[in-house]
Each structure stands twice: as structure tokens, then as C-alpha cells.
């Protein structure tokens, strides 16, 4: 269906080619997962399928890409609309119209599909993706998962043979991601659509993939059956890491595979001491850094946060979980003092951050928002760092040192907008940490980060906590939560429905349990590194 | 129902936006033919009643109130101007304001001074006429979906229509972006006002807008926007030449018509010829474009009736002005009470008929106390949401959940 014939892509001003001599064939009805670290050329590979690379993005493409036998060099991307449906990273940015039904019909209108056929296909697609009740809703009022499904539906109505998805589930909570994935697998199995998807959260999708395309980062491409590729892949989901650790061959891709083989490992681990969780114990005697009582946030008449009380102890990392729209962001903004708060009290070491100036509030509570780029407005990384030093009245170079600790090697003359997601996040976090706040709030920090970036970011979060700060992070990423947090607070409809040590909250939950916990339950192991440490400790004693 | 047109027999649907616009223009024409305040108020009442009964619950439908306020403002400012600057003489002096003497070069302009009833009434009548026309346009805006109107543009102008639609959706996004960035500014402890803060707000907003528009352009490109498909180069060339040539002809024609010194041939004949060529180009281009419209608005009986009512109101009032002009322009000198004659009132009342004749609008959510009580909730697919009872013609609303179950296997 899709053929890459010795494809090399050069961008101007890039040191090396984004793709080098790529030979790749994707057959009809395959679900092909593209993995690799940030900046390894995933988006370039996806864009080349319908000719956006190089027609739209610029750059040079040598070799040939053919879809359904048609070369992308022969015509512009719009002439591929009936063959290739593409959904970008941010579905909202790609919407052309403003209501669900119009959006679903848009591609068909461009293709000149007769109105009767259009009506029928719109109805079918609404049912196929389970969004029939949303048909008249304005697109902006939909939740992330709904938007993603509408975006997929909007390209599906043209009945394309190939569906290209760039990070389809990254921004979604676990349940919404399952909905989207169910829709995708149904397309592959029932309709024979060829799907090419790039996804950082491999653990969600790798078990459904027929083929894995791994981009090691030097422009080359490795393609093959998932177990083989994962053996050498630079990125792998936790269940695969566990398989590598336990020496299972072939590597398990799903929790089910792993669980069937994990009996021996569970026996082995049964005797081991439980992982030293409960770092929350550090804070037992201390006074909490942040105390919030009965916080209420309301937008018009709609309550977003209903009388939520939280305490953040120094040295503890607390994860705030819950589906999209459950009030996580509103709560974070209210705690920082910059967002609206209609009721309740917030006190950071005795001061209410909403009652002091922005600069003082910033030294009390630092917040990294969901779109970190909003905080950046200068031309180079170096200028941003200097500005941050001035803003916080700290010695010159403080921000830069923080940045180098977070993500070493970002060249100072680069434009903040040209950084990768992970680098930009680090820069904003460095800027916010320059003020040395006692409490750090992070809103969806792992969005767009690959496993390595996430792991180092996790270390960093732990380090922040070990310096005596209190960290609260709102996230959907269960694996990340399992790795870093001491306590989990689950919000639903603006109310706290669960609050307790991470292991207690997540192991029991079907949606929030990390893969390792699912494999090894009922034993409370949450991450691969815990298992590794336990096994290593055992060997050392022997 | 009062007039014997039971709404329950007609399915709710959205009327062609063009029909509402023609109806409103008809009413506005009627308003432009009279200064009789009684008639003008009657026209406003007619427009208001039709809007109240036939508007949907979309955001633009709620804008009618703003047009009413705008109308009130127009009347008020007209009267105020008359008080300040005078204009129109009259014998019935109400009160005298101290006049401010102006230098000689401003002769003919007067500030304050005596205020006469005739003067105020003249301003009031004039203002009310303009306000009524504005309210009529507001009624069209409240009743017709502006985006659907753009969809009805000829195929050859489709690209322009899309550009307008995108521009319309970008504006709220920009506002949202500004709010978000301003909020984020506080996180960095930056100022939120003043010139220095401007950079911190403008740059992220523009960068954001740039990113969004690139993403949108990529999405539109990959979804087939601007596809030419099988359209030959020659056909595109012919369309372009016809439309452009025609428009040039129209421009020359208008110029010829306006400027008395140009030869007569350059006037009306050129205008007509240019318009014809441009229309031919648009039609030709429209036929070449292989594009279709989802749920196209069709011209059906409802649309025709609505247009007839609007145009009828305007036309009848125009006719009565030939018969009895005095009633349409109440006399200010001598001062006389305006009277409501039968003929013009009937003419205006023709315009109210769409309140019953037009099909009821589709609503996205049922609202209590609605004039049409038998409206299916969330009537996404009206034809499915109504079930014919075995007994005969009476239809009963089916709850949306039931409909949903039946449509999804």
C-alpha cells in the first residue's frame, strides 16, 4: 500500500538528513507503529506518506514514496485526500469547521461526494466512532478524546485506504485512549484500513501493531515484527522492559502475554522485601508546605472544582489524576493563585499566593502550564535564561545551570520555538525553578516526551522533592506516576474520589494501574526498576 | 396554534438563509418608505415576533437583542444631535438652552439654543426609520446561520467563502490565546499591563497563531482543500478570464453610469454586459468545480412563502405610498398626530406571517416554555425522531434515546 523507495529527506540548515535511504513497504490492512525518540524523524516519515513532506514543509526528498501505486512527487497532498487520511498531533488545530457534523463532511465536500452519500457516511462514521450524541456540538466544547475521535472520523468519511495518525493518544486520559484505540483497531480489522501511527506511549498501542518501524535517530529505519524490533529498540514500554529483565523470549507485548509467563517471576519476588515506598513518611512530622481547604472553582454556573482540600508535604511528589475535564488544571491554577478561585483557602507557609503580587506568588508556587510555550517570548534560549535570572533576582547563570541539569546540551543561540517538546518543557521548568518556589505544580508535563526524556524528567522531579519542595503533578501517564509519585489523588467531576499512597490507589484501579502492577498483581510492584533492584539485591546477598 | 397552521404537522428544519435575508430586506425596504412611527414600531414588532418564534438556539440567534439596543442608541443619538445642533425649525418651543456663540467661519452651525417639538420629532422619526432598518437586518442575522449563507455562494467563489469561514473561527481562537498567555504571564511574575508586557503577550500569541495556521493549512491541504481533480488547465483559464473580464466590465460600467461626462455606451450597457460575463464565468467555474455541499439548503415551499411575505410587505407599502403618501410621512408642519391607516398596516402585517408559515427551527436542546411544545429533543435526524402512529396522521415525538437505539444496530 505504502512504499518508500530509497527515500532520503534533507531539511535546509539541518546538520544531517532526517531520513536516510529508507526502504519500507507497508501492506494493506496493516497497523504500523512508528517509534523512536523525539526528533528521530517520525513526523517526517508520517508527513512523507501523503506528500506534505516535502510539498508543504520544504526540504528535499530523494527517492520515491508511492501510495496505492501513485508517487507523491507527481501531485500535491490535496490530490491524495481520497487515499490518505491524516490526523495531526493537535486535533483542534486541524479543524476547519466548527461543528461535529460539518467537520465530518468537510473532506467529502472537497471530494465532491454526492449529498445523499455524504449523509449516509456521516451517520455511519458517527456510529463507528461512538460519537453520535455529539453531532451538533461545537468542536471547541469537546473533550480531548472526543476531539481526537472526531478528527479521525473527519478523515474516515472520505474512505481513505491509509490512515496516518500522529500521536493519537498522547494527550488523552487512559479511558479516552482506550476508546480511540478501540476505534482504530476496529478500522484495521473490519474495514481493512492501513494505519500508520506514531506514538510515544507505546504501551498503549504496541500490542495491536502488526509491524513496528523503529527510527534509531540517525535517519535510518528498522522495520519488522514487533517482538524482534523491540529487542533492539531504543524505546520500549514497561512490559517489554520487564520481559528483557526476566529474559522472556519472544518478548511479551501485552500485559496478558507477560502475565502468563510471570508465574516464575512472581514466585521469585514473593520472598523479596517490598519496595521502599512511602517516602511520604519524610513529611509525617513536618508541617505541610501547601494547605488548601475547600477550594471551589467555577466557570459561570459550571463548577470545575468542588470544595477540594489537599495538603502537600515537603519532599513528597503527589500525582493528580482523573479523566480530561475533571478539574485538574483548574485546581492547579487555583492553587498557584493565578487562576480563579471562588471559595476556600490556600496557604503556602502561611501566605495565600492569590493575595500577593505575581512575583511573590511565583516564589511560593511555581506552575508549569499545559502549553509551556506560552511563557516564552524571547528569541534565544540564552536570553530567556538571562531574563529569568533578572526576574527572580538571582545570580547570573542560575537558570542556565538548572537547564543544563534538566536537559544538557541545548545550544544557547537556539530559538525556543525550535526546541523539541521535551527541551521546551525543560526550559520552562528551569525558568520557573529559578525563583526557587517551595511548591512546584506541573500540568501534564510528560506530554510529547519519549521514554528516555520521561525517565530523566522523573529523576528530576524526585530530585526537586528531595530538596524539600512539594511537587504536585497533574497527568494521565500512569507509568510516570508509578515511577515518581508517593501519593495519588484522583479527581472526578471536580471532587476527590481517591487519595492515598500510590501503590494503594493505582494497583487496584483497572484504568490507573501501570503495566508492571498488572503483570505482577497482587504483589505491589509498580515499575521495572523496583523489580530490577529487588532482584539485584537478592543476588548480592547470595 | 392561533392561525390554524399546526406546527406539529411540519418537521422542524433550518430555512435557507437566503430566504430570511430576502424577507428581512423586504421589511427593511418597507421601513425605508415611511417615517410614521406607528408603522415603524409595527415593523419592529413584526420582526421581533418572527425572530422570537423562529430563531434557533445558536449563538448568533441571541444577537437580536444587541440589534435592538443598537436601534435604541441610534434613535437616542439622533434626538440628541437635534438638541445640540438644532436643525429643522418649529414654532412649538419646548425649552431654550443657552446658545453657545460660534465664530463667524462656523456660520450655519448652531450649538444648543431653542428646542422645538418639531425638531425633536423630526430627529425621532428619522432615527426610528434607520433603527427599524437595522433591526430588520438584525432579524435576518438572528434567523439565518451566517455560515450556511457562505455555503450558498456560487461554486467558483467557494475558496473565498472558506477563507472567510476560517477567518471567523480564528478570531475567537486569538482571543482565547491572548487570555491564556496573559494568565501565563503572571506565572513568570511579568507585568500584565503596559508596553513592556505587550511583547510578552504579543509574541507568544502570534507564534501560537502561526503554529495553528500552519497546522490548519497542513490539515486543509491533506483533506483536499483546493483540489482541482480532473479540471483541465484550459477550463481554469477560461473561468478566470471570464470572471476577471466581467468584473472589469462592471467597474467600467459603474464608472460610466456615475460620471455624466463619459459616453453613454460605457454606462448601463457596459454594466449589464460586464455583469453577464462575470455571471457566466461564475456559472461555468461553478460547474467545473467538483465539490458538493453536506445537507444543502434547498428552495422549498417554506422558503418561497417567507420571501413572498417579506417582499410582499415591502412591495405593498411601496404601492400605498403611491395612493396615500401623507399617511406614511406624518406632517411636522403643521404638527399632527401620526395615524395608522388600514392599508399600510395590512402591508406590514403581511411580513409577520412567516412566524407561522415558516417551519419551526431545529434546536440542539429542548427549552421549557417554548412556543412549539411538540419539538423533538436533540432533533438530529428529524425524520427519524418522529414516529407515525398506526392510527393515522398524528405524529408523536420519540425520545432521542429511543431514536438512537433504533439507528444504531
TrEMBL record, chain A:
Keywords: ATP-binding, Nucleotide-binding, Transport
UniProt region (Disordered), positions on chain: 264-284
Domain ABC transporter: 2-242, 290-518
Keyword Transferase: no
Pfam family, one: ABC_tran
Family: Belongs to the ABC transporter superfamily.
The protein's name in its UniProt record: Energy-coupling factor transport system ATP-binding protein
The species this protein was found in: Actinoalloteichus caeruleus DSM 43889
From TrEMBL, chain B:
Name the UniProt record assigns to this protein: Energy-coupling factor transport system permease protein
Region described as Disordered: 361-409
Location relative to the cell: Membrane
Entry keyword annotation includes Transmembrane: yes
Location (main, coarse): membrane
Membrane-crossing residue ranges in chain numbering: 20-50, 62-81, 156-179, 237-258, 270-289, 301-320, 340-358
PANTHER family reported in the protein's UniProt record: COBALT TRANSPORT PROTEIN, PROTEIN ABCI12, CHLOROPLASTIC
Membrane topology: Multi-pass membrane protein
Keyword Membrane carried by entry: yes
Organism lineage string: Bacteria, Bacillati, Actinomycetota, Actinomycetes, Pseudonocardiales
